[in-house]
Structure to design on (172 residues):
């Protein structure tokens, strides 16, 4: 991914207008937009794939390690001798897997929602020869910038929401 980012930056610098031009060159801009779109698609796919791997790995660990599941269980579910029955362990494992799956889906979806307008804006630019038609260029830029900035706000907020121990340290 870092190689694609360096290529994107190099292409972006090369397509910037000269002192006599007011807009970037069309074909260079299209190449940059293609690289930016490949970067978006690749990064989105990789991050979603890593969330899927995290879910699968954790689910596998929860299935194979009963002690790990009991670590997350409430002490109220234990018998008088401190042990847990198989039904309560299974229910806790299912609850943990559902929670983890929901968190992975929400984090992936938030990233996709925040970067999707950037990608669509680039696709519209490619179709129109490197520019967005009409006066919507300024509005489109503003929308894209707002959504990209939202990612920097949404991700830490979701982390605080999903991790109560971090939330408690942040509040205190």
């Amino acid at each position: 991914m870092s190689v694609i980012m360096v290529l994107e930056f190099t292409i972006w610098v090369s397509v910037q207008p000269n002192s006599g031009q007011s807009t970037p060159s069309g074909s260079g801009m299209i190449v940059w937009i293609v690289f930016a779109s490949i970067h978006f698609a690749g990064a989105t796919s990789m991050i979603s794939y890593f969330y899927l791997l995290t879910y699968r790995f954790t689910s596998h660990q929860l299935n194979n390690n009963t002690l790990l599941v009991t670590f997350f269980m409430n002490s109220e579910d234990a018998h008088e001798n401190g042990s847990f029955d198989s039904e309560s362990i299974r229910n806790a494992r299912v609850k943990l897997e559902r929670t983890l799956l929901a968190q992975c889906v929400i984090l992936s979806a938030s990233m996709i929602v925040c970067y999707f307008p950037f990608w669509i804006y680039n696709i519209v630019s490619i179709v129109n020869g490197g520019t967005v038609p009409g006066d919507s260029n300024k509005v489109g830029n503003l929308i894209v910038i707002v959504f990209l900035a939202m990612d920097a706000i949404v991700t830490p907020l979701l982390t605080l929401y999903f991790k109560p121990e971090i939330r408690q340290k942040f509040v205190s």
User: Anything to note?
Assistant: The mean pLDDT is 76. The CA atoms of residues 29 and 99 lie 43 Å apart. The two ends are 38 Å apart (CA to CA). The helical segments are 2-15, 26-64, 66-71, 86-127, 136-162, 164-171.
